[in-house]
Amino acid sequence: MTYSDEDVGVAADGITSQVVPFTWRIDAANYIYTGLNTSSTRTGVPEFVQEVPSGVDVVSSASPGYTPGVLVPFNIASRHGSNFIRGATDGVLTNLDTTPTALPDLSTTDLQIAYDFMGTIGQFRQFAGDIGDTGLVTATNPSTEPTLSLTFDGTGGSFYNLSWSE
After folding, report:
1. Which of 21, 107, 119, 131 is most buried by its number of CB atoms within 10 A?
2. Rg from Cα positions in the chain
3. Can you tell me the distance from the alpha carbon of 103 to that of 80, in angstroms, rounded to the nearest whole number?
4. Which helix (H) or strand (E) holds 140?
5. How confident is the model at residue 68 (pLDDT cuts 50, 70, 90)?
6. Which domain covers residue 104, as residue numbers?
7. Residue 12 belongs to some domain of the structure
8. Residue 114 and residue 23: Cα distance in Å, rounded?
């Protein structure tokens, strides 16, 4: 992602934040979303949020979070249930929030990816079942695979090397 620290918190409306990688929202009282909090001393702290009419619940990753910049790599994931929220950032779990009393019914609305986001999403996964805390850690562990991307246009100066390694 690319962002500068604009001192913007994660708002209780399901759409307002410094960066919103995804939101799944019916209205300002029924949603699940992830936002990047840059309010005050927080500089790029991912927060995982869900709200139903009876209340809003938020869990945050460890502060200070991501450093503002161009093409900042990140790996985030969250689990949302009727009585919990848990997130993970780059292989590290957030605290478990067990205060939610309900899960918003979002079955009639679309999940919006890259709602307020400048960058590239290399992979987005939505699991059909609960992957548990171990799955969150696994899903967000920084990759050890090389991330080299090359384009060849077929001109005389293009070539490829099949034996490239990290």
Report:
1. 21
2. 18
3. 7
4. helix 132-140
5. confident
6. 19-140
7. no
8. 8
The answer to whether position 155 is within a domain reads no
Question: Which tokens belong to 85?
Answer: 């929220």
Is 9 within a domain? Answer: no
Higher pLDDT, 52 or 1: 52
C-alpha closest to that of 125 among 78, 92, 80: 78
Query: In the chain, how many domains are there?
Result: 1
pLDDT tens-digit map of 75-89: 999 999 999 999 999
Q: How distant, in Å, are the alpha carbons of 45, 85, 135 from that of 31?
A: 20, 13, 23
For residue 163, name the pLDDT band (cuts at 50, 70, 90). low
Question: Sign of the C-alpha dihedral, residues 63, 68, 73, 77?
Answer: positive
Does the residue 47 lie in any domain? yes
DSSP bridge pairs for 88: 77, 93
Unique residue bearing structure tokens 């990759």:
143
DSSP state, residue 53: T
Other C-beta atoms within 10 Å of 84: how many? 16
φ, ψ of residue 118 in degrees (nearest 5) = -120, 110
